[in-house]
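Structure Section — protein described below
Tokens — whole-number codes for backbone shape
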Amino acid sequence: MTRILRIETSIKGDASVSRKLTDRIIARLTKTHSGATVATRDLSEGVPQIDGAWIGAVFTPAADRTPEQAQIAAYSDALLDEVKAADILVIALPVYNFGLPAQLKSWIDHLARKGETFTYTEAGPKGLLENKRAIVALSSDGTKIGSEIDFASGYLRHMLGFFGITDVDFVAADQMVFDPEATLKKAEAQVDALAA
């Protein structure tokens, strides 16, 4: 059975283009993967930023954590467990100010844990979340995917690869401000053309 994890990040609710694309991606995946399960993590209301208390909590053995540390670590561990359990990640990536939404960056920060999602070897870093696929639904008003002002897609692809997730597809409704209807149709066609 295929386990899909949907990560929503847009603050625009029903008006979100990236959410429309993730809806379509999920519909395609559940049609082609009979019996697939879908779990959703909506980050749109914010994700606690990591800080000194977080470092103290997640790097303290569970049995030695204070009640406060246990509470901090529980949230971060839940995010990590969701990703570990998933076969396919469907990630909404609205481009805000040429980069990732802050809540998506914070989600990544919670996942970036040595010994959990990556390790260092003599040959360099090695991702520990191998054999997973990610499909990213990028939307932007004016930023073209892959352009010199796109600081979102390259960073997300790098971090996924750093975690060991190298099978990554992007569908892009980019530069929506110029021709919203045609741009959305192009992105929908990219979803429909995704390999099952």
Notes: The helical segments are 17-32, 52-58, 67-85, 102-111, 153-162, 180-192. The mean pLDDT is 96. The chain has one domain: 3-192. DSSP finds six helices and seven strands in the chain.
